[in-house]
């Protein structure tokens, strides 16, 4: 199961990710810091599966997922990035991949070989596209076959990063939360509402998620913007800030 490093790269399109195009930039360094902080937050658990999500759409969770996957792969790990946002997939576009088959196809028993949906894209990084939009995404993601897929993937690879749907509009991420080793919540400054973030955290806790922390996206400090911050405490969403 799974294609290995050394097979032909399946995309020739330019990949618009800072960690690839600007490896020495400040933003790339911030992604590396986030990677390090996630590792520290997960020291009491062997982190083999990581879910990245957000409270609502438009907060940049997929961008964070992709850049994190690149940085983990650069570290020498065999990484599989899975587009589990079956309702609004974007990762195939980011990497210039076809999306005729993908995670939804595998979970719905519409393909015989899971390798047909997994693409080696750069170095140690593999991408599994979402596949066609199914009529029952929550049912597929909450299925035993999804659990079996993640278990099988971690036998072959070092880390699986799951880009999941936003928490509040749909139940998909809540169903995935207890299938993964850790969850990171992406929060976009100027977009996310504090009440929505609180509700998202509460929903994850109810789903028995192991919340590793939050990434504050698109931070603006007056002179710079587009930066990332990381917190494992959610301190900037205290009740005093209502």
UniProtKB/TrEMBL annotation:
The EC number(s) given in the record are 2.7.10.2
Name the UniProt key words of this record, in alphabetical order.
ATP-binding, Capsule biogenesis/degradation, Exopolysaccharide synthesis, Kinase, Nucleotide-binding, Transferase, Tyrosine-protein kinase
Q: Name one GO biological process term.
A: polysaccharide biosynthetic process
GO cellular-component term (any): plasma membrane
Q: What pathway does this protein act in? A: Capsule biogenesis; capsule polysaccharide biosynthesis
Q: Read off the SUPFAM superfamilies from this record.
A: P-loop containing nucleoside triphosphate hydrolases
Q: Which GO terms describe its molecular function?
A: ATP binding; identical protein binding; non-membrane spanning protein tyrosine kinase activity
InterPro entries named among the record's database cross-references: Bact_polysacc_biosynth/exp, P-loop_NTPase, Wzc-like_C, YlxH/NBP35
**Superkingdom of origin:** Bacteria
According to its UniProt record, which reaction does this protein catalyse?
L-tyrosyl-[protein] + ATP = O-phospho-L-tyrosyl-[protein] + ADP + H(+)
Family, per entry: Belongs to the CpsD/CapB family.
Name of the protein:
non-specific protein-tyrosine kinase
């Amino acid at each position: 199961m799974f294609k290995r490093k050394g097979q032909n790269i399946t995309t020739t399109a330019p990949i618009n990710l800072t960690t690839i195009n600007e490896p020495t930039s400040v933003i790339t360094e911030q992604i590396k810091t986030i990677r390090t902080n996630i590792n520290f937050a997960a020291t009491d658990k062997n982190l083999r599966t990581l879910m990245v999500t957000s409270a609502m759409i438009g907060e940049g969770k997929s961008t964070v997922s992709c850049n994190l996957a690149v940085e983990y792969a650069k570290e020498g790990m065999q990484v599989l990035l899975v587009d589990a946002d079956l309702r609004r997939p974007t990762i195939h576009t980011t990497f210039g991949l076809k999306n005729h088959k993908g995670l939804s196809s595998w979970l719905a028993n519409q393909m015989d070989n899971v390798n047909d949906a997994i693409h080696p894209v750069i170095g140690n990084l593999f991408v599994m596209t979402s596949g066609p939009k199914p009529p029952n995404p929550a049912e597929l993601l909450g299925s035993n076959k999804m659990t079996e897929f993640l278990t099988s993937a971690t036998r072959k690879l070092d880390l699986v990063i799951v880009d999941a749907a936003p928490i509040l509009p749909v139940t998909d991420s809540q169903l995935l939360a207890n299938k993964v080793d850790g969850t990171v919540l992406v929060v976009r400054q100027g977009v996310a509402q504090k009440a929505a973030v609180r509700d998202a955290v509460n929903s994850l806790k109810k789903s028995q998620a192991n919340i590793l922390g939050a990434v504050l996206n698109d931070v603006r400090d007056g002179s710079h913007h587009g930066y990332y911050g990381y917190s494992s405490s959610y301190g900037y969403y205290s009740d005093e800030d209502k």
